[in-house]
Input
Amino acid sequence: MSEINELYQQVILDHNLRPRNFKEIANASTHALGHNPLCGDRLTVFVSMDGDRITDIGFQGSGCAISKASASLMTTAVSGQTTEAAHELSALFRGMVTGDGEVDPDELGKLAVFSGVGEFPARVKCATLAWHTLDAALNWHDGVVSTENDEEQLG
Output
């Protein structure tokens, strides 16, 4: 195994075992529920806003290591960002893991640890669930976001 793959595995394992921002925000400005029925991942993303800026973000739920690590890294990446910047980062991340479009993993910093997920199609939904749920929360989506819905419904 190459050193970079080993590093990526270590980052994912660390964020799975010690997820950042694994918390409910009682007075969140918005939140959304996400579900990946293929893997059983379920999470809620909570977002506190000041205007269009994310001032606090957290998530709660359960899921596989990829899903939990993705949510953890997502929350650290978008904290303090505007909604527009968060949506752009979400699109870049999803493009990287799905192989849609040309995405330079260097643009994504630590999120590049998920660049190899596309080689495992069943894991793409695990990695993108938190991002779809974030987009739904920022779009004030009502209801549950499911990885089995049409792309339009995922935010």
